[in-house]
C-alpha cells in the first residue's frame, strides 16, 4: 500500500474509486460500453507503469526490517513485503541455501492492519506458532487457527470462518472459537435461503428467486443469474421487475473473455503445404 500511495496516488484516491464504481454500475446497466472504458483506463495506466519501471527498484517494493533475535532459536526475525502482503520470517534463506535445496525458513503473514514499520518482536513471535490447534467443536472436529491470504481464520471440518478483530489466532480460546464457527454456519445457512420467492417467470415459466450472492443480491430462474441493480431494493422487487432483469441478461451479448489463452493462429495455405 505504501508503494501505491507513493508512486500511484491516483489509483488509491477516494474520488478515483467512487468514479470507478459509478462507471462500473453504468456498464452493468448498459449505459456505457466497457471496451472504451477499459481503453481510457489502461492506456494511461500502462504508460505510468512503463515510466515507473525506471524509477522504482525491487528494494522499494520488497521492503525489509529486522526486529531482533528469536530467544528460542537465536535466529534473526525480519519482516518483509511479499506477494500477498507483509510477513515475518525466522532466519535467512541465502542463495546457497536455495541451491542446496534447504527448507525455507519459517514464516507467518502479518494480520491485516498491522504495519511492518511499527510491528515489534513481541507482536511477531506468537505468529510462528501458527497454524495452531485451538480445540474441538461439539461434534468433535478439530479447530485450527491460522492466518491466510485474506487474514486470520478458523477451520473446523468443512467450515471456515474469519476471526473477528476482537480475537487473535494465537490466543483465541476454544470457547470463543466454537462460537465464531457456530455464528458463521448460521450466517451461511441464512444466506442460502432466498430473500424472496416471486413466482414463475412469465416467459420461461420457471420460479424466480431473489438471493444473496458473493457480489450482492441477484435474481435467478435456475438457469440465468442477474445482479439486482443498486437502484432497486431486493426485498421489495416485483415479479415484473425481476423478469425484466433476467430477460435483459438473456439478451445481452456474450462478454469477451478478459483472461485466458488467445486462440492459435490459423495456418496459411503455404504453411499447411510446407507441413
In percent, how much strand structure appears in the residues? 15-25%
Biggest sheet character: 4 strands, antiparallel
Structural class of the helices, strands and pairings? Answer: alpha+beta
Low-pLDDT stretches are 256-262
Distance between the termini: 52 Å
- How many structural domains in the coordinates? 4
Explain the overall architecture.
- This protein has 275 residues and is of the alpha+beta class.
- The protein has 4 domains: 1-55, no CATH class; 64-127, no CATH class; 130-191, no CATH class; 194-251, no CATH class.
- It has helices at 2-7, 14-28, 34-55, 58-61, 95-99, 121-124, 174-192, 239-251, 269-274, and strands at 64-69, 76-82, 85-90, 106-109, 132-136, 142-148, 151-156, 159-162, 196-200, 207-213, 216-220, 225-227.
- The strands form 3 sheets. The protein has a 4-stranded antiparallel beta sheet, with no helix packed on it.
- The radius of gyration is 26 Å and the shape is flat.
- The N and C termini lie far apart (52 Å).
- Residues 256-262 have low confidence and may be disordered.
Amino acid at each position: 500500500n505504501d508503494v501505491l500511495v507513493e508512486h500511484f496516488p491516483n489509483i488509491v484516491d477516494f474520488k478515483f474509486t467512487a468514479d470507478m464504481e459509478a462507471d462500473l454500475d453504468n456498464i452493468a446497466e448498459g449505459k456505457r460500453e466497457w471496451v472504451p472504458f477499459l481503453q481510457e483506463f489502461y492506456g494511461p495506466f500502462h504508460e505510468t507503469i512503463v515510466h515507473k519501471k525506471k524509477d522504482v527498484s525491487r528494494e522499494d517494493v520488497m521492503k525489509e526490517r529486522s526486529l531482533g533475535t528469536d530467544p528460542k532459536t537465536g535466529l534473526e526475525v525480519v519482516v518483509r513485503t511479499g506477494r500477498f502482503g507483509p510477513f515475518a520470517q525466522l532466519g535467512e534463506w541465502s542463495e546457497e541455501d536455495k541451491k542446496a535445496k534447504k527448507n525455507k525458513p519459517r514464516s507467518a503473514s502479518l494480520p491485516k492492519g498491522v504495519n511492518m514499520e511499527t510491528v515489534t518482536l513481541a507482536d511477531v513471535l506468537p505468529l510462528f506458532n501458527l497454524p495452531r490447534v485451538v480445540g474441538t467443536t461439539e461434534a468433535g472436529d478439530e479447530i485450527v487457527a491460522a492466518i491466510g491470504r485474506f487474514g486470520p481464520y478458523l477451520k473446523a471440518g468443512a467450515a471456515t470462518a474469519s476471526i473477528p478483530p476482537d480475537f487473535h489466532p494465537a490466543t483465541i480460546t476454544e470457547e470463543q472459537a466454537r462460537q465464531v464457527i457456530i455464528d458463521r454456519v448460521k450466517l451461511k445457512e441464512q444466506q442460502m435461503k432466498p430473500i424472496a420467492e416471486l413466482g414463475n417467470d412469465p416467459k420461461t415459466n420457471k420460479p424466480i428467486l431473489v438471493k444473496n450472492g458473493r457480489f450482492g443480491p441477484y435474481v435467478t430462474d435456475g438457469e440465468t443469474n442477474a445482479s439486482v441493480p443498486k437502484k432497486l431494493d431486493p426485498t421489495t422487487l416485483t415479479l415484473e421487475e425481476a423478469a425484466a432483469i433476467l430477460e435483459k441478461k438473456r439478451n445481452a451479448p456474450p462478454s469477451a473473455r478478459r483472461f485466458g489463452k488467445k486462440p492459435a493462429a490459423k495456418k496459411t495455405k503455404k504453411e499447411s503445404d510446407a507441413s
